[in-house]
Design goal:
This protein is 16% helix and 28% strand. The chain is an alpha+beta fold. It has a domain of 44 residues: 2-Layer Sandwich (Signal recognition particle alu RNA binding heterodimer, srp9/1).
Length: 75
Amino acid sequence: MRSRTGGMQWGTSIESPNPSGLARFYAELLDWHMGHDEPATAMVAASPQGPFFVARQADAYRPPVWPPADGDNAP
């Protein structure tokens, strides 16, 4: 993402099996705006200058489970 002055902006990236749903949840929770919403990537921003975060598609995402199942690592 480029700022209006042409410099790069960075933010947090979160992997999700449903990036659009996760971004909409945080947009409503934080009263931020959806920056963009595509099938595999969605962005939420407080303002055009940030802060912001990006939710990205993660097909192999497995939510943490507690206690961990036998053979799994603890989250």
